[in-house]
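Case study.
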Amino acid sequence: MKFTIQREQLMESVQHVMKAISSRTTIPILTGMKLEVSEQGVKLTGSDSDISIESIIPVEENGIVYVENIEPGSVVLQAKYFPDIVRKLPQSTVEIESDDRRNITIRSGKAEFHLNGQDSEEYPQLPQLHTEDSFELPTDLLKNLIRQTVFAVSSSETRPILTGVHVRVENEELHFTATDSHRLASRKIPLESKTELPSVVIPGKSLTELNKILDDSEDTIEISVTENQVLFRTKHLYFLSRLLEGNYPETSRLIPEQSKTVVKIDTKELLQSVDRASLLAKENRNNVVRLIMKEGNQIEINGNSPEVGNVVEEVVADSIEGEELKISFSAKYMMDALKSIHYDQVKVEFTGAMRPFLIRPVDDEQILQLILPVRTY
Amino acid sequence: MKFTIQREQLMESVQHVMKAISSRTTIPILTGMKLEVSEQGVKLTGSDSDISIESIIPVEENGIVYVENIEPGSVVLQAKYFPDIVRKLPQSTVEIESDDRRNITIRSGKAEFHLNGQDSEEYPQLPQLHTEDSFELPTDLLKNLIRQTVFAVSSSETRPILTGVHVRVENEELHFTATDSHRLASRKIPLESKTELPSVVIPGKSLTELNKILDDSEDTIEISVTENQVLFRTKHLYFLSRLLEGNYPETSRLIPEQSKTVVKIDTKELLQSVDRASLLAKENRNNVVRLIMKEGNQIEINGNSPEVGNVVEEVVADSIEGEELKISFSAKYMMDALKSIHYDQVKVEFTGAMRPFLIRPVDDEQILQLILPVRTY
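After joint prediction, the assembly is written out as follows.
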């Protein structure tokens, strides 16, 4: 196997594929990165059994040559050192070759690295998915769908299904929902054409890693689903993740149909005020803050930490309708929710101090954040 | 105590003073930051017993008012939360007051923090130094003196004196020297006037923290020394450090008088080549690399890691004079030394493969780096 490649393109692909490689894997060959070279270009593969990533560097694109002097073949090299090696090579052109004993040589300028490789035959084959149940999304839209929901997945393995994001099609809308049973984040978007998609639950970690790799240079991404895998594919990227098994809980029951108090308020002001109120309460797990309605459109946000002190702040809402209210909640959950809403104004809908409350952008019904309040006596 | 202050100036001083405050101190009041207000302005103090820092915000400077509405007084507040509180306050003006029960109130905009403070009488008095043995240096020169030496101090407490930088005056030159007995870094500068200075050893940690605080807006810094303290003073900063006791070893004996091989070479090329050669050797403590002279002005740098692989690179020196050589050394020590030398070309002087070698800039006799090679068989 032999090829010459542009270091910049190699570096980018290496960094993408590294996100699927874990040094703590139970299958030794998965600490390696697979290199495959054909007349079409170079393909790098990494996997930790849950996530697998393939990144392709084509021979040329838009008139620029990336790969040349090709002798097809494949090998597996130790992933641990490869990113640093590629990053520190002296020149923009890199020559890589391996012989039949899997001795790998990496050359650039006057520097030469010799690494012991492994037989690519030992590297597991990734499943080839039938692309029947597949549809396309603009990449930036998928990134937003993930960004606005994945933070709300559970970090505990007590109920494994909650560590994933629930993805389903309902009424020609694509729904992403995540919850850890203390708060919920949901986003739906209309789909252009009739799409058949089984309801699936994708591990939060997979989506988080996917979002780090996807950039805006790719316009659309193709999503395919089988019984236990989901594949995200762009022109040069193939990102495969296992799905979580089991039934995702029915979450629409959690969402109150009527609210008793509606507050419209500047998103950033509420966020910064809750942030300040939580500063002294960092020690306790929930960093609870309290919200109290005052006269006019005034809202008081306060936080208290025995022996340290307390914080109190008055914020002016744009409007308040309905019953007066005093309610306590986790500052972290509120801040997570507000940070995910990139609109200037939010509408917070309360149903008393004991029931979940909703946070939505004022002008967008597609995004929904729900938080369960905390009881205080 | 009461005052109104500009948040930006308060933030800067808080960040400086925080560098002397440790949450792990054995004296509880030292987890606090002392605030003292007088008609001259505000003074913040922090200390961990080894290092003490006072930062002053004057009432006004260059026509800009920083502090007003002053009622003199003092209090100690918990340092743990103060930086975050100041950083997240909503407006550029901050009002701080404390009553006679040490209840502290911090107000900005509509936000109000209440903290429990402590009596400033309980805060230890910092020693007032006689400024007899003192001299001035340009601030940027002091920063360089520190930067080019402090990295070489010992990180082990086996020989505590080596954890400090040796500062002395000799032949009307100011010398800074640091060594961990494996490598040494030294810089000397001529002093303008006759300066009497006892030979002192300043903890490396103190100088590192000092360098983080000093910026180039201060032209000069005054340095005063007593039996067991050193004081660095600028217009608004007072930085006090204890000195290390004991006799610093005589290091000039280590420096070979004659060399057998002299290599002149581009600093960056040597640095990057050694960096690459050490990539595979990260596991072993010394990350040893080898240097071998070749024909002409060629030098080979190589590194080897059993089971992983090896690296080899040819570098062209600008000139090589003297005996042929094969030598091994720690890549980390070589890279530390080369990174501290901000000159394009260095002169490396070897005395065989078993004796220390020197690295100096080609055009500057003031800077000296010395490294003990590693034996290989």
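Observations recorded in class. The interface with chain A takes residues 78, 81, 84-85, 88-90, 104, 109-116, 272-273, 275-276, 279-280, 282, 307-315 of chain B (CB under 8 Å). The two ends of chain B are 71 Å apart (CA to CA). We will return to this complex in the next lecture.
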